[in-house]
Sequence to fold (201 residues):
Amino acid sequence: MESIQRAVTYVLLSSLLIRLPWWTVLNLTPAQRPRRSWTIQKCLYVKFLRFLLSSKGRDRMKHIRVLPTHLALQLDKGVEGVYVDGVPELLAGKVKEWAAKANVEATRIPGYWIHKKGENIIMGQKPYENEKVAYFLHGGAYMHLSAHPNQATSAIPRGLLRFCPSIKRSFAIEYRLSSIPPEPTAGQFPAALIDAIAGYN
Fold:
């Protein structure tokens, strides 16, 4: 707990006292900004996000909050999920070749359902005829974030359910995240693609 508090303190203080002033100076005039039309607030927001998603930011932030991963289904109140078995029989051509070269195999991974409010759908039931189910692959450049319904990325499928009357539910697969050394490489390419195929099946 103490190490987490130190990490949070470091990230906050270094961001407020060093990064934020420096980024402000770098983006003072519209000519210095990535896009002239961007406000200074947008520039600072993008800089901060890029820092968090960089390897340095990730290393510091991973001690602060542990995200759900492909290793275990994390059910909670209001969270519906299932394990999805790998489908090695569906791998063919280049994907099968890439998987063999990278020593990546199809494996069982979690997937999470989100149902439209007011719908009485049994979790995981097969789609009825002509039903549209949103299949969601969360963002994060295949290296970050999670498909878990309690994560910020779930705002996208929730928005689809809210504004698309024909869609009653969405399914998100917790694909294996890619990494670079020195982190473990369990999710190297084409692991996420193989997991996406399993979830679609």
